[in-house]
Amino acid sequence: MKNKFFLFALMFVGILQAQDKKQSYSYTLKEAIEHAIQNNYSAINANRDVEAAKKKKWETTTMGLPQINGSVGYQDNFKLQKSLIPAEFFGGAPGTFVPVTFGTKHNMNSAVTLSQLIFDGSYLVGLQSAKTYLKISENAKIKTAQEIKEIVINSYGNVLLAEESISILQKNKGILEKTLSDTREIYKNGLIEEENVEQLQITLASVTSALENVKRQRIIANDMLKLLLGMDLSNELKLTDKLEALTTTNVDLNLLKEEFNVTNNIDYQIGQNVKTSKELLLKLEKSKALPSLGAAVNFGYNAFGNDFKFFTPSQQWFNYSNLGISLNVPLFSSLGRSARTQQAKIALEQSRTQLTETEQKLKLQFEKAKSDYEFSIEQLATSKSNLSLAERIENKNQIKFKEGLSSSFDLTKAQEQLYSAQQSYLQAMVDVINKKASLEKLLNKN
Fold first, then answer.
1. Residue 173 · residue 229 · CB < 8 Å
2. Would you say residue 3 has pLDDT above 70?
3. How far apart are CA 57 and CA 136, in angstroms?
């Protein structure tokens, strides 16, 4: 018995450990984008919106298909209504009346109705509107995927930026610590002034503080990326792409030669969908002036009795059936339909104006995005050159400082210039990646 309990305890602990174990993921940028498009919370809901639109389309379609409904009704006339009839019918005095009751205490009815819409202009417009609604949902899904892709690229770059910054700051800190240690020894020998040591201490403290801050930022950026990927924040996420290699693959001068076809842009397509929906709204208002025609067939049974015995073999049921056709013709609405039609016309004109505005805005955005991307490529080359110069200047000042030819202030200035050049170069690499993503989004590039 003790052995069984011990084995059960081991199994239970093993299950808990398996549940508590964090999952680990490794992604390239491409893999991260693919994962996000499938698992991002907004993407999941966008897929659901499309499915809901498909169901809505079918719901609209069924309104013009045969409808069958059944009904069962029961009535207990616990106090039947009385009517007055002339008493002379029963041999009574003329001018007098006798109260009588008609009907039975219990009534039951069961019926089946088959109805069919034969013609309705609103229904035909409704079918077109359902298709447009589905198209709007599908375009919204595409737009969501494009936005997710761009945000994931930005977030992925931010994590890489933080990781590279940590690596550089750790290297800078190590160099500073060694320089400070050497300077202290020189100061102890009385060869330099104390302020040289103090100046290096200030620089080291600043670099250490910046390093700790970037470490915290890296955690936040990584968690933000997990959220975009639809992952649990407790899971581990490792990025396998490197910032410099990723930047190199994103320098594409041919992209700057691409022509902008505004009709391929998803925002323009959504604007067209809005215009189409307004056109259908106008058709709907006009269709309300048309007649509608429908038909219905009823089949049923009635049963009556003063005792409740409808489910016994002796109960007699009486069947009935009928066919009905209804024609509704709108004649006069006190100009209400005309007012609604005019409103729909105004809404259509507004949508056309908005579509034109969207087209012009997109053209302007394209020119700006192309300019920004071109500038980011130029800035990458400039910042790389500046970094090389800053490294040489800092190295020369290190040598001069060790040889006693310059002060710690000169060295600190050169170091600060180097640190700034390092961050500028890192940011330039991220900018190339992000600006290309923005341009590709406008061009509808996958």
1. no
2. no
3. 12
Are 6 and 130 in contact, with CB atoms under 8 Å apart? no
What's the distance, CA 442 to chain centroid? 18
Q: Name the token pair of 122.
A: 């609103």
What gap in Å lies between CA 180 and CA 380, rounded to an integer?
Answer: 33
263 token code pair: 């009709």
Is pLDDT above 60 for 11? no
Give the rounded percent of residues in the chain with a pLDDT score beyond 70.
Answer: 95
Structure tokens at 290: 């048309």
Q: Residue 192 has which token pair?
A: 């330099």
- What single-letter DSSP state applies at residue 89? G
pLDDT tens-digit readout, 63-90: 999 999 999 999 998 888 888 888 777 7
Region 301-307: what's the mean pLDDT? 90
Output the pTM of the full model.
Answer: 0.85
Nearest alpha-carbon partner for 255 in 441, 29, 436: 436
- Most confident stretch, 5-19, 101-115, 225-239: 225-239
Nearest to 417 by CA among 442, 388, 446, 374: 388
Helix (H) or strand (E) holding 424: helix 408-442
Domain boundaries, the chain: 22-64+120-290+335-442, 68-118+295-329
Beta bridge partner(s), residue 200: none
| Element housing 72 (H / E) | strand 67-76
Centre a 10 Å sphere on the Cβ of residue 311 and count the other Cβ atoms it contains: 8
d(CA 442, CA 74) in angstroms, rounded, equals: 66
- Architecture field, domain 22-64+120-290+335-442: Up-down Bundle (1.20)
